[in-house]
TrEMBL record:
SUPFAM superfamilies for this protein: Dimeric alpha+beta barrel
Transmembrane intervals: none
InterPro entries cross-referenced by the UniProt entry: Dimeric_a/b-barrel, YCII
The protein, known as: YCII-related domain-containing protein
Domain YCII-related: 18-103
Family of the protein in this entry: Belongs to the YciI family.
Superkingdom, natural source: Bacteria
């Protein structure tokens, strides 16, 4: 099994607190169903900051990255199929998937 990172792009919020709470609960249920393949679930990000090539620091996000989950799957196709069930997508979010590569030290 390989490891894949699911990158959550967007804030996952609809603007309706009740709907957002419902989506959050669905997301947590979805993670619970993935229990055996989860390596690092539900890692939200905040205070996104970039360092530009001219070394200027800005408190912005160029990607809209809001969090990530790491799972194990046989291949990227399987990881993508697993991601299709994520309720984060129901609020207009996007999930980008990439295989994690082990680096030799």
């Amino acid at each position: 099994m390989s490891r894949f990172i699911l990158l959550y792009i967007g804030d996952g919020k609809s603007g309706d607190p009740e709907k957002d709470s419902d989506n959050y609960n669905k997301y947590m249920e979805w993670l619970g169903k993935l229990n055996k393949i989860l390596v690092s679930p539900a890692n939200p990000l905040k205070d996104n900051t970039i360092v530009k090539s001219d070394r200027i620091i800005e408190n912005v996000s160029v990607t809209g990255l809001s969090g990530y989950t790491i799972i194990e799957a046989a291949n990227i196709k399987e990881a993508a199929e697993i991601s299709k069930g994520c309720p984060f997508l129901d609020s207009g979010g996007v999930i980008e998937i990439a295989e994690l590569i082990q680096m030799n030290r």
